[in-house]
Amino acid sequence: MSLAGVRHLAGIAGKDRRLIIGLMSGTSLDGLDIALCEVSGAGFDTEARILKFETADYSESFRSRIRAVFAKTSVDLEALTLLHPVIADTHAELVLDALSRWGVSPAEVDLVASHGQTIYHAPRSLHGDEASPNATLQIGDGDHLSVRTGIITISDFRQKHIAAGGEGAPLAAYGDALLFSAPDRARVLLNIGGIANYTFLPPSEGHAEAFSSDIGPGNTLMDAVARQHDPSLPYDRDAALARAGSVNDALLRRLKGEAFFGLSMPKTTGPELFSMRWLERHLHSLGAQVSTPDLMATLNRFSAETIADAIGALDPIPEIFVSGGGARNPLLMENLAHLLPGASVQTTEALGIEPDAKEAVLFAVLANELVAGSMETFRGRIRGGPAVTMGKVSFPD
Ligand SMILES: Nc1ncnc2c1ncn2[C@@H]1O[C@H](COP(=O)(O)OP(=O)(O)OP(=O)(O)O)[C@@H](O)[C@H]1O
Ligand SMILES: CC(=O)N[C@H]1[C@@H]2OC[C@@H](O2)[C@@H](O)[C@@H]1O[C@H](C)C(=O)O
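C-alpha cells predicted for Anhydro-N-acetylmuramic acid kinase (397 residues):
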C-alpha cells in the first residue's frame, strides 16, 4: 500500500459509477462465477448492472485439490497452505482470461470483490464449544489476486460479520436488501446452491427487518450421491436419476429429524454437517437397502420440503425469486411448486439479475458498500446481522 494507492482508492470511492468484478466460488466447487458489474450509488440507492458474466469451470485436478481440504476436520496442513495462494492465482488467471475475451483491460476495472473458497464453516451450532466463537475460513488470498491482476481487491468478507456478532453467513441479506427491496411488498430471494438459503425482504417503506438464513442442503447431498453413483456425473442432470425413483418416506422422516431444522432463523450450515457421512448414518439406522434412484428422489424431495417449510412459515407467503444452480433441477422446482401451491415463483431474471450470477453480484455490492457506503445503512435493518461494512483491501503495489 502506498499514498498513491490510497489516493486511487479514494478516487474510486468518489466516482458516480464503478466497474467491479464480483467473484464467487461456492460449495458445489463447479467453477468460479465471474460477474463484471457496473455499480452506481451506495446504500439503498445502489444500482448494479451485469455487463458480463461467466462461470469459469475448474479443472478436475484443481477441484480435487480443493476437495482434499474441503469441509474436513483433519487435513494436510501443507496442502491447505499451498492452496491459499494457488486458489488466488488460479482465480486471477481466470479473471484475466475472461477480461481479455470480453475486450476489457484490467486498468478499466475499479475493484475485484473476491469471496474466495470456503474451506470450513463452523458456527457454534456445529462445533458446540460455547467458549469458542462462530468461525469460518475462506482461502484464496486477496494480496495475490491484487498483485496478479493489478486491480485493488476486496476479499475475506465474512470475518467482520463474525467479529461483530454474526455467524459470517449468509451475507445475502445485505446485498438483497439494497438491490431488491420493493417499497410496498415483501419478497423472498431463494438461492439453491450446494446449500439452500433465503432472504426475507419486508416492504422497504416499513420498518421491519430483513433477514437471511441458510435452510439446509440444496444440491450438496444430491451432487455427492450422483458422484458416488458415477464419478463422471457432477450432478443429477435434469433430475434423471430422481425421476427414475420414488421417495422413501421413512428415510425422508429421518433426514428431516436433524436437529439443525429445529433451530430458529437466522442460522447457518454447510457440507460440514450435511455430508455423505451424515447421510450414510441415516441410511444405516434405517436398516434397509435404498436404490440410488430412490435415494435421489428422496433427497430431491428432502431439499424441496425443507425449503417449502422455511418459506411456508412466512405469512402471507411473499413472491419468490429463485437463483443458484438448483433452479435448473426441474424436479426440485416441480416439488417446490407442488409444496407451495399458489405461490408466485420466478427466477431472479425477473429482477434483472441472471440467477447464476446473483451471488457474485452480491460481493460486488458488498465491496461497493465498503468503499462508498456506510455501516449506518444496515443499522436496525438486518435481523441477526450486525451493522457493518465488510471486506479487506489489498493493493497491487
Ligand atoms: N441441469 C441441471 N440439473 C440438475 N441440477 C443442476 C443442473 N444445473 C445445475 N444444477 C445444480 O446446481 C449446482 C450448482 O449450483 P451453484 O453454482 O448455484 O452452487 P454454488 O454456488 O457452488 O453453491 P452455494 O451457493 O451453496 O455456495 C450443481 O452442482 C447441480 O447440483
Ligand atoms: C460459509 C459460506 O461460504 N456460506 C455460503 C454457502 O453457500 C450458500 C450458503 O452456504 C450461504 O450461507 C453462503 O453463501 C452466500 C453467498 C451468503 O453468504 O449469502
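Residues 73 and 120 are 8 Å apart (CA to CA).
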